[in-house]
Design brief:
The chain has 453 residues and is mainly α. The protein is 45% helix and 11% strand. Strand 9, helix 7 and strand 10 form a beta-alpha-beta unit.
Amino acid sequence: MTVKVRFAPSPTGLLHIGNARAALINWLFAYRHGGHFMLRLDDTDLERSEERFAQAIQTDLAWLGLRHHSFAKQSERFDHYHQAMQGLIKSGRLYPCYETPEELDFKRKRQLAKGEPPIYDRAALKLTAIEKQAFEEQGRTPHWRFQLESGVINWHDLVRGDVEFHSNHLSDPVLVRADGAYLYTLTSVVDDIDFAITHILRGEDHVTNTAVQIQLFAALNNNQPVDIAFGHTTLLMDARGQALSKRLGSLSLQSLRESGIEPMAINSLLARLGTSLPTEPCLSLETLASHFDLDSFSRTPPRFDEQELTHLNHKLFQIMSYDQVKGQLVHLNTAQVTEAVWLVIRGNLHTLGDIETWQKILFGEPEPVVFSSEDQDFLKQAVSCLPENHWNQDTWGQWTQYLKEMTNRKGKMLFMPLRQALTGLDHGPEMKELLPLIGYQQAKARLEKTKLA
């Protein structure tokens, strides 16, 4: 059996970090098993679904490298859902209910006040044909509920282990609203059957849905169970252990991309969150997939920390070769950044945009630093003995050793004024590597151009 999974977002907003984790888990699982990854847009909510979000979802997934093998839109499959609805009505498993939202809310409040679970009482099953006709003459249109069969619903979850529900503790789910809209519970099952999905991997907020859908799968498959495996991962928490806010604008993939976060930094973090494996920068999805195993996922909700993502982004650059990044440099004003430059500065990058800053430091005009008179005298001495020829990684050591003997300066007092005068910074790559890139003429000019405090 070929493994086939699906990622099924609704195009009602931008993908956020939680969506990305669900997509990545499915993609890695499919790749690990030589399987098929499907992108399905759950866009039956025609009022809220927008084409711009549908396009953004595909752009974001492609940016992450999560390319799909097949694609579908639920808005193009209404005839399939109608057919399934009619079949369930014919079999007696789907029944019309005429309560208004206000009446249902009143029922729930009464049940809660009595200490009872807010489960639908199936009053609609007791309606006579005359009573139904009376409701319709009042202008009421029914919503449709799926009648659950009494008994235990169980499955072996790929993450949670053995899971069990008793259907008597569940409400008959609404599959079709009074306005005729098909709800997720129905459309998802119809699609999973039609597209031969073998594994459904999603968040633990869908566990109850799975219990209901297992019966629905059977009802739509001539009362035979469908061979689908389920896995429910814990949901992401924020750095303080609180549920991630639904307002995730700052954590949308689009905003993270615009802030300079690399896609493989996101993939590297999300692939390991909630598992027993260490989080470390990884340069390819294929490598991540080779270590991916649902058995490594914990039942403890993982914490997502933006600072950890930023740090991982920084660490990723340290292992990226020039060939892996030069395609992105085309879109930046970084013509002077050669492979030699990249190898020197990559360990000091937090985002790729920082390259422009380092190009300015190396080949333009760095920020001026104000020096004391003592340091200015020292820098004049430094200029006087600055070697003119044969610059390489040994030049810095030879030059500073000579200055140390000449001035009796050492440590920070020796090195810091030189670094500040040459780069405008008090930190950065090793000066033995930077100095040959700056070159004699620029180094001499910068040492001579210092400002007095």
